[in-house]
Design goal:
The complex is a heterodimer of chains A (about 475) and B (about 475). Chain A is an alpha+beta fold and about 475 residues long. Chain A is built from 14 helices and 21 strands. Helix content of chain A is about 35%, strand content about 25%. In chain A, strands 11, 14, 17, 18, 19, 20 and 21 form a seven-stranded mixed β-sheet that branches. Chain A has a five-stranded antiparallel β-sheet with strand order 3-6-8-1-9. Chain A starts with a strand and ends with a helix. Chain B has about 475 residues and is α/β, with parallel strands linked by helices. Chain B is about 30% helix and about 25% strand. Chain B has 13 helices and 21 strands. In chain B, the strands form five sheets. Chain B has a five-stranded mixed β-barrel. Chain B has a five-stranded parallel β-sheet with strand order 7-14-8-9-10. Chain B has a five-stranded antiparallel β-sheet with strand order 17-18-21-20-19, with helices on both faces. The chains are: A alpha+beta (about 475), B alpha/beta (about 475). The interface between A and B is large, with 34 and 43 residues.
Chain lengths: ~475, ~475
């Protein structure tokens, strides 16, 4: 007969526990009272012993998994010879009477606790609720009869509570130190005290916070992510000559920032292509006028306008995520950053209030900031406050790429080199100028369907500029 | 109907409520404090800790005067003017509660006498003691309604002869024969008062010992003197019936050492614990939740399931102690102001103001055993204390509960005169994460009872100056 051994009731308000260690595997022969799993609740580490002897047929849980009270942990085959022989039916009786004693013990404990509680009027519900706890052991035979509450007590496995290290429960730090740690957001139980027998001082908390900070920063750009164990570099000189150069500030900041974005933003990149043959004609047609005004009509300048219009249709793209508060911040302004390749590295000047400017104004401004970026004239302020970024690599080449979202923005548009492709129109192939687009977005905020809807809208706007005035 | 807006409304003016109100006012909040009494103070000041301590002071004086005979000083038999004694006690209560009322005014706390109940999560309705009603619209509220004496189901009969702790402290008369049901701290303190004033007191406790929960070795010291004061202490005994007769209250007892199951007493005091007050507060109109023990559920910042409402003190759980309520009140106020703060004491002291006093803080030996926490215990009996000897009160003991590996002090238990004041040092030691060595190396003044703390630490290392007891190893 196979029985399921379930996670017993562990106390008031404890509905689940973490399985720390499964101590049996399939095929193991176990005895009653042998520990099956070690679990951890908020309060203690508890060893859960089996209630019956037999062979482990199936292990339902794994190390590190969460188990709910009443959930089966393992299936145990109670040996058939035991069941069959008459002597075992006696031993079966013996077992049940032993269990009865356990139950009685529990009951008396309950009574005891209850009357003790008279003083403070808090019946020890922990023990009391054992009566109504989930039945840890259900056999096919027993299922037919409905057990009385007293029966349930008999089937409770003995629970051995191993308290967590007491010094963890009662942290050796003065109240002022504990409060300081809480204020700066440090979990004091993780701080190692330097005082007598591990007493924690304010200095210890500060040192811990400082180290933590440094670890995060180091981890951020050398191994590419927070919480990732840093790998040490091999000795490259073993294989040939090397030269070490210090990172420039821009390089370091770029590394840190992009590592942060990469490791905190779940990225999806959506590709699409836009037929810009007509747009290119318009661009040539009006290009001269804009040069006269002091700008240059580039695809990027037009895209600025397109994005500003798309934001009105898709406001979820103009947001940031506040993880701590579980809130989404919607922005009522539209500033768009444009990635500029300089000899010192990547810079992203931000064009403000894009929606309030026409394409001529945007062209002029874009040319100015690009120039400023290349001449090291860009102020920090001019690179802040962006809602979205455009990265146009079309001048260099390539088809598609996967840009990294410029956090805390939630999306970035990558533009690649346009080229003539045969497009099947009106039953024949026509040479059309096709521009590849790559949209990366923060999947926490933006669903896949909205991602492609946004990109389709951008493509349509490029193909039918009238859409800008119609919908945008 | 009058309607007032307030930033913080506090229901209940006990040590939790007024501590919270005063701190909030000091931190710049606009505070409304409501209570049914005419001044803040709560059960503690009006009908609990304070009046009982005044009476226990008198009872100690009476017993010491009796003891003085042994030392060659004899006073006459004490003559008790009950009216004057009551006035003395009431004077203390009025002085303290009046003082709290003054302090509330000075801090510009709007104190309203009346019964408050929630209309919704932002509004309170107060039925004021002057018969009018007032609506208070609050941003945040703190429930600090406290607790009330518990009743024994089936034993509550309506009679002036049956008292609870509140009526016992009114001190209407000194009954010849008094039965105290419940050998907890309230029962024992009031038994001490009445016994000293001349009542023949019988204590009945359902459990195997008085002061359940406290360590037995400490209780044993206290029991010796208490037993001598009382007519009888019946443990493992139940009162199964109360009946009012012409002579008094006829009581039926059931227990193994009861020789006379039916006895008559002039008065009966029921002190079987306290229960939280949540009825009539209109909590059903808020999101506040109550657990199966009747306490309001709160998180570590003392916030209830309702965003705007916090709860502190007896109404949120044990231990039901004034100083716990005050500490919680202060945490709640800071949490309301957005400070990163939680209620996380490492030790809450508890004091039984009998003679001798019994006090403990942090982990008790009993609790350590129940939870399977490995500890070492160092005890210093007061027989070896110079100061205790000069007082002729060697009936005392100081003990430390120690974490064996780090030698940190996890708990302190003291029985003896002045234990209540001494326990503070133990609480500080635990909160500061002190180790036994710290106590041993801290110079304590001689000759005082506080030296016993240092001496207990020396016992741990097997080298107490005043006592020869080598460490077992």
């Amino acid at each position: 007969m196979i029985v399921d051994f379930r996670l017993p009731h562990l106390g008031d308000n404890i509905h689940s526990a973490d399985v720390i260690k499964v101590l049996v595997k399939e095929g193991d022969i176990i005895n009653a009272d042998e520990v099956v799993v070690e679990i951890e609740t908020d309060k203690a580490t508890v060893e859960i012993p089996s209630d019956v002897s037999g062979i482990v047929k199936k292990v339902y849980v794994k190390n590190g998994q969460k188990a709910n009270v009443g959930e089966p942990l393992v299936a145990i085959e109670v040996s058939s010879s035991q069941l069959a022989s008459p002597s075992t039916s006696r031993s079966g009786l013996a077992v049940s009477s032993e269990k009865e004693e356990v139950g009685k013990e529990k009951e008396s404990e309950i009574r005891n606790k209850k009357s003790e509680g008279e003083l403070v009027v808090e019946p020890a519900v922990n023990n009391q609720s054992l009566i109504t706890s989930n039945r840890p052991l259900i056999t096919e035979n027993e299922q037919s009869s409905i057990p009385s509450p007293i029966d349930l007590i008999h089937h409770l496995p003995k629970i051995i509570t191993v308290p967590k290290n007491i010094s963890k429960v009662v942290v050796p730090a003065a109240p002022s130190v504990r409060r300081f740690a809480r204020e700066i957001g440090v979990d004091i139980s993780l701080v190692r005290g330097s005082g007598t027998n591990g007493r924690i001082s304010i200095e210890d908390v500060k040192t811990y916070a400082k180290n933590l900070n440094e670890k995060i920063q180091q981890g951020a750009f050398s191994s590419g992510g927070i919480g990732v164990v840093k790998e040490s570099l091999p000795d490259f000189s073993k294989w040939g000559e090397i030269e070490r150069q210090p990172m420039s500030n821009i390089r370091r900041k770029t590394a840190e920032h992009l590592s942060y974005s990469w490791s905190t933003v779940p990225h999806v990149t959506q590709f699409d292509k836009a037929d810009i043959t007509e747009l290119e004609n318009l661009r040539k047609q009006f290009g001269k006028k804009i040069i006269e005004a002091g700008g240059k009509l580039t695809v990027t300048a037009i895209l600025l306008k397109v994005i500003a219009s798309a934001f009105k249709v898709f406001p979820q793209f103009n947001t940031s995520v506040d993880v701590d508060k579980s809130e989404i911040i919607f922005k009522k302004f539209i500033n768009v950053g444009v990635a500029v390749d300089t000899d010192r590295g990547l810079l992203v000047p931000v064009i403000r209030n894009v929606d309030k400017k026409n394409i001529i104004q945007l062209s002029i401004e874009l040319q100015e900031v690009s120039k400023k970026a290349r001449n090291k004239k860009l102020s920090l302020e001019e690179m802040q406050g962006g809602c979205f970024t455009i990265s146009n690599l079309g001048g260099i080449g390539g088809t598609y790429f996967t840009p990294i979202v410029n956090s805390p923005e939630v999306a970035i548009l990558g533009v690649s080199k346009s080229s003539y492709e045969p497009v099947y129109i009106n039953e024949k192939f026509e040479p059309r100028l096709i521009m590849p687009l790559s949209l990366s977005y923060d999947h926490r905020i933006i669903d896949g369907a909205d991602g492609i809807r946004f990109l389709r809208w951008v493509v349509n706007a490029l193909e039918n500029p009238f859409l800008l005035s119609l919908e945008g | 109907m009058m309607s007032t807006k307030t930033q913080l409304a506090i229901i209940g003016g006990g040590p939790g409520g007024y501590a919270a109100a005063f701190l909030a006012a000091d931190l710049g909040m606009q505070v409304t404090l409501t209570d049914m009494k005419k001044n803040p103070g709560g059960v503690c000041t009006w009908e609990g800790c304070i009046p009982s301590k005044a009476l226990l002071h008198i009872s100690k004086l009476i017993t010491e005067a009796e003891d003085a005979k042994k030392w060659g000083v004899e006073f006459g038999e004490p003559k008790i003017d009950l009216n004057k004694l009551r006035d003395f006690k009431n004077g203390i209560v009025n002085k303290l509660t009046g003082g709290l009322g003054q302090v509330a005014k000075l801090r510009k706390v709007n104190f309203i006498q009346g019964k408050a109940s929630f209309v919704n999560s932002n509004t309170l309705l107060i039925n004021k003691s002057d018969g009018t009603t007032e609506e208070i619209v609050f941003e945040k509220a703190i429930i600090a309604t406290g607790s009330t004496p518990a009743k024994v189901p089936g034993l509550s009969i309506e009679s002036l002869r049956v008292m609870d702790s509140t009526s016992a402290l009114e001190l209407n008369d000194i009954p010849k024969r008094l039965l105290v049901i419940g050998g907890g701290y309230i029962g024992l303190e009031l038994s001490t008062v009445y016994a000293a004033l001349g009542s023949k007191v019988t204590i009945v406790e359902m459990l195997p010992g008085i002061l359940p929960g406290a360590d037995r070795d400490l209780v044993a010291v206290l029991e010796k003197r208490v037993k001598a004061m009382m007519q009888n202490i019946f443990v493992e005994t139940k009162v199964v019936e109360l009946k009012e007769t012409k002579e008094g209250i006829q009581v039926k007892l059931e227990g193994k050492n009861v020789t006379e199951p039916v006895q008559t007493f002039d008065k009966v005091l029921i002190s079987v614990g306290r229960k939280p007050i949540t009825n009539g507060l209109g909590l059903e109109k808020t999101k506040v939740k109550i657990n199966d023990k009747g306490f309001i559920t709160v998180d570590k910042t003392l916030r209830t399931d309702d965003q705007n409402i916090y709860a502190i003190g007896d109404v949120v759980g044990n231990p039901m102690l004034a100083h716990k309520a005050s500490a919680e009140g202060k945490v709640a106020v800071e949490a309301i102001l957005g400070h990163k703060i939680v209620f996380e004491p490492n030790a809450i002291p508890a004091v039984v103001f009998t003679d001798p006093e019994l006090a403990w803080t942090g982990l008790s030996e009993t609790e350590a055993r129940e939870k399977g926490i490995k500890v070492e215990v160092a005890k210093f009996p007061w027989g070896a204390s110079g100061r205790a000897t000069t007082l002729d009160r060697n009936d005392g003991m100081t003990k430390l509960i120690i974490e064996p590996e780090t030698e940190r002090i996890l708990g302190v238990g003291i029985v003896g005169v002045g234990a209540g004041d001494m326990i503070a040092e133990g609480t500080l030691a635990i909160e500061m994460g002190a180790v036994v060595k710290d106590l041993e190396l801290t110079i304590h003044p001689h000759p005082t009872l506080s030296e016993t703390m240092m001496a207990a630490a020396e016992v741990f290392y097997g080298r107490a100056t005043d006592m020869y007891r080598p460490k077992r190893k």
